[in-house]
Amino acid sequence: MKKDMKTKIIAHDQVDCFNDLAQFMSESEALYNSRPTTPEAHLGLLKLFFNEQSKFIIIEEEHKILACATITTVPNYPAVCFIGNYHLPINYKNREDIKKSLFQAVYHYCSNLQMKDIVGPINYNTWLSNRFIYPAVSIQHFWEPINPNEYPEDFLAENFEIDKKFFSYFMPTIDDMHVLKPAYDIALNQGYRFSPIDISDKEHQKILFQLNCECFNENYFYTPISFEQYKDSILNSIKGMDLSYCRFIENDERKWGYIFGIPDNHQIIIKTILVSPLTRSKGLGSTLIFEMLDRAKKDGFTEMVGALIREGNASQFFIKRSSKPYQINEYLLFKKVLK
Fold this sequence. Notes:
Strand content: 25-35%
Largest sheet: 13 strands, mixed
CATH class of the largest domain: Alpha Beta
CATH topology of the largest domain: Aminopeptidase
Number of strands: 13
Helix content: 25-40%
Structural class: alpha+beta
Number of helices: 9
CATH architecture of the largest domain: 3-Layer(aba) Sandwich
Number of domains: 2
Distance between the termini: 36 Å
CATH superfamily of the largest domain: Gcn5-related N-acetyltransferase (GNAT)
């Protein structure tokens, strides 16, 4: 006898469902991710970010969750909703039927809200996990999205279009940093200097948050979050990492930006470069990169990765002036226009 699949919509105040959701998402990730997010971590994000603007859409069978996704409305973009937290285990025999049921429920819900566009994957907001890696790669890196090929292929099969592309460039050498030396020299002559970042320091926490807000508000589909949300999610996620290569750039007036670079075996990963809009075109981004790579080279690092760079972003300037990458990982953000 064929069992019936049911659609359920979960609101932020239905906390009795949170543990089951967190457990399902972690078990789903474990099918393709060698370091799946723990149920406790999923639960923490649910409590921090799952609010009245979001709904979980669930497909279940006999009270067992088969698939899920969040739909989040964004006040700054009233005609757009984000689809995120997409989980559909890759080992289901009837996976295609489950996928169709989930997406039909998503379309129905968004249409009732009179939304025009669905964009994703974006887990609640752009501060958190977003984008699919495609194609998936054999070596999984902790600093990039990890998903099976089935997930972006599900979106493509549902006629989502590629909205934005991002790339990670694996460079064979860090010696190309010499092209940035002139900017570094000018910045030092102008009185700029560097200082370490200590995420346990409350003042540093506030400065990092302020710089992120100041710089990210120009980003695609930026949505604001609170300082407490930032501290309990973003900063909490990097506890225990080697942050010895991260630096603020400052002068006597204030801290103007920072670079977030982390070592990964023999590579130094350039994850984030932020510079205040008030000091754009002064070469401070290039200065931060040179200072970090110079120290990394002295410490024996031989390669670098420019990570998760949006197509057309200014960060590609340095990449284009460097040696040819030996590997490029690609990541996709999708959009579907509702009729």
